[in-house]
């Protein structure tokens, strides 16, 4: 379970990284719309796992590799934003957030199920 401090730092990092991807670096990623869906921070606040969702791109893995290559620049921009709140700017590890695709896949599976209606039971008072 995450501490309150971890949760606060994660929310702040999510907000700041979202602004970085939307305002400072949108041209760097071929016009792809990048959303920071979740951030998990280690207990010592030195490592952040950043989950990203992509729109407007076909090859998510190639875009993720491009983001990982530019992680130093992203971390530097993040450091300028959080320098008064955090002693150490966390190391950023980026991952694709595939929960939307997973939910869509599950919806398709459930829609394809053929569930017969339950037999009607007669309520007789004996």
Automatic annotation (TrEMBL):
Localization per record: Cytoplasm
Residues annotated as signal peptide: none
GO biological process entries: maturation of SSU-rRNA
Family assignment from sequence similarity: Belongs to the RbfA family.
GO CC list: cytosol
HAMAP family, per the entry: RbfA
GO molecular function: ribosomal small subunit binding
PANTHER family noted in UniProt: RIBOSOME-BINDING FACTOR A, CHLOROPLASTIC-RELATED
Domain of life from the UniProt record: Bacteria
Complex and partners: Monomer. Binds 30S ribosomal subunits, but not 50S ribosomal subunits or 70S ribosomes.
NCBIfam families linked: rbfA
Underlying gene: rbfA
Classification via SUPFAM superfamilies: Ribosome-binding factor A, RbfA
Function in brief: One of several proteins that assist in the late maturation steps of the functional core of the 30S ribosomal subunit. Associates with free 30S ribosomal subunits (but not with 30S subunits that are part of 70S ribosomes or polysomes). Required for efficient processing of 16S rRNA. May interact with the 5'-terminal helix region of 16S rRNA.
InterPro entries, per database record: KH_dom-like_a/b (IPR015946), RbfA (IPR000238), RbfA_dom_sf (IPR023799)
Location, primary (coarse class): cytoplasm
Entry keywords, A to Z: Cytoplasm, Ribosome biogenesis
Pfam family, one: RBFA
Gene3D superfamilies: 3.30.300.20
Protein's UniProt name: Ribosome-binding factor A
